[in-house]
Design goal:
By secondary structure, the chain is an all-alpha fold. The protein contains five helices and no strands. The radius of gyration is 14 Å and the shape is globular.
Length: 123
């Protein structure tokens, strides 16, 4: 499996866990997983050009150079909601905001990658 496929597979696995966590009201987990999904999607995109990042800052710089403003704004909203969930984990509204913004990001990357990004199928 190439790096692109590996990162996309990891993103789908984490997306499955995010959906399950959201449905069970595990809001802080939703925030944690959304950030990890974002990282994997950015890494998958970069892997298509044989690039790999070693730090969050590298991913941010790449994102600013390669993604449209609406994707960057959705990413920013996820980061802020994620931070709030760390202090107020019972806030379902913040978790819902993460899911809504993540869906925008999944649509963008799905179009960019030429395939819909959905949770892993149940075994």
């Amino acid at each position: 499996m190439g790096d692109f496929e590996k990162h996309l597979s990891i993103a789908r696995e984490k997306l499955s866990a995010l959906v399950e966590s959201y449905e069970k009201g595990r809001h802080t987990v939703v925030g944690d997983l959304a950030i990890k999904i974002l990282e994997q999607l950015i890494e998958a995109d970069a892997a298509r050009a044989n690039r790999h990042f070693g730090s969050h800052q590298d991913r941010q710089l790449y994102s600013k150079s390669n993604f449209p403003s609406e994707v960057l704004e959705a990413t920013r909203r996820i980061w802020f909601a994620y931070g709030d969930l760390g202090y107020d984990g019972i806030n379902g509204g913040r978790a819902r905001e993460i899911v809504e913004n993540l869906n925008r990001i999944l649509e963008f990357f799905g179009g960019r990658f030429g395939e819909k990004i959905e949770p892993e199928a149940e075994p």
